[in-house]
Give the backbone structure.
Amino acid sequence: MKKITVVGAGFVGATTVQRIAEKELGDVVMTDIIEGMPQGKALDMMQSAPIEGFNVEVLGTNDYKDIEGSDVVVITAGIARKPGMTREDLIKINSKIVGDVCENIKKYAPESIVIVVTNPLDIMTYIAMKKTGFHPSRVIGMSGLLDSARFATFVAMELGCSPKDVDAMVLGGHGDTMVPLPRHTTVSGVPITELMDEETIDKLVERTVNGGAEIVELLKTGSAFYAPSAAITAMVESIVRDQHRILPAAVYLHGQYGYDGIYLGVPVKLGQQGVEAILELDLTESEQAMLDKSAEAVKIGISTLDI
Ligand code: APR
């Protein structure tokens, strides 16, 4: 039985644990700094097992010892973005939290694969790689799959077709500089550039770029968690079941796409070793220019860190 830890039992963390348990991807440990809260949520989830029919254990804890031997650790611990707050505002607070969490991962789960979710994503994933000292193929950020799912949702809504048939591709940083790729976004294999006009695509792209902020504005006291937890769970599944799925994710680039030493969202192959391959797409000049802007924003974020 695989063992999966989710650090941070808030909206994203707890929903992820629920999805992982219901899919029986492994036993799950959910940890948080708030005493009693992960234990309460875990017990509640265990009591759903007879009804849902899942056969894995969910443990809530405040003790990092319990994460010992985890195959995958998902980091959702942090402060969620509030209305009006940019991802960059979060750097200071969340880098301290992620740094502390990583010290414990290094100590108790040194063989694990780490999936970072805490925002600002590309920066937090970089911190996690540095603080754990793990090989970059074992430290991955969840961003592109969520952004792609948002783009796919808007495409399906626009065409009135099933979201199941839409395959979207979004590259770049998880923020205002993400790079949705209409050329590589297809409905049952047909590029959307053949299905809708440029103006419509631009509108959907813009809504995708503001996808997180749109939800923050509506919720007022938190940020998205249903789609993020679905994206995390798909990544965990590809790793623990060694599915070799090709998904966009934030990974450490060492030369690919012309960048070195930063985390940025690109298509990767995910299996039980973590990142098995980084796929390099041929980009048009304007796509590359957008990606350059995205990479520049991530570089600036990294340069503000004192690690
Ligand atoms: N160790 C463990 N847990 C922590 C720590 C820490 N050092 N610091 C904070 N937490 C916990 C909080 O107690 C809280 O329960 O992290 C949890 C975060 O949950 P929420 O506030 O509900 O935030 P959530 O919506 O889940 O978002 C978490 O994911 O998508 C990103 O931007 C989002 O960075 C945010 C993260």
Notes: The two ends are 36 Å apart (CA to CA). The pocket of adenosine-5-diphosphoribose is lined by residues 7-13, 32-34, 76-78, 80-81, 94, 97, 100-101, 117-119, 222-223, 225, 228 (CB under 6 Å).
